[in-house]
Design a protein that fits this description.
alpha+beta; two-stranded antiparallel sheet; 4 helices; 16% strand
C-alpha cells in the first residue's frame, strides 16, 4: 500500500508548478472565490480552481460527480482507480 501512496505523491511533486493553481506565474488562478476552490483527489490537499482546471482539461467525471486535478499527471492516476480517489473527496 505504501507504493500506492508514493506513486500518487510523486505525480505532481516533481513539477515546479500547479497549472490549475497558477498559470505562467503572472496570474493566480486561485482568485475565483471560495465556490471555485476544491482540492485534488489524487494529491489530497493541493488546492485547485475548478474554473482553471476545467479550462485546462484537468478533470474527470465519475459516477455523476466531477473531479478536478492540480496537474496533468493526476488524470491518468485517477483513471487507474477512480473509486479509490473519489473516496478521498468524501
Amino acid at each position: 500500500m505504501a507504493n500506492d501512496t508514493q506513486a500518487a505523491s510523486g505525480c505532481c511533486s516533481t513539477s515546479s508548478s500547479n497549472p490549475a493553481a497558477t498559470s505562467t506565474g503572472h496570474d493566480n488562478l486561485l482568485g475565483g472565490g471560495a465556490d471555485d476552490l476544491t482540492t485534488c483527489p489524487v494529491m489530497v490537499g493541493s488546492p485547485v480552481s475548478k474554473q482553471a482546471a476545467e479550462s485546462l482539461g484537468l478533470f474527470r467525471d465519475f459516477e455523476g460527480q466531477r473531479y478536478y486535478f492540480c496537474c496533468a499527471g493526476c488524470g491518468p492516476a485517477f483513471d487507474a482507480d477512480p473509486a479509490k480517489f473519489a473516496a478521498n473527496m468524501a
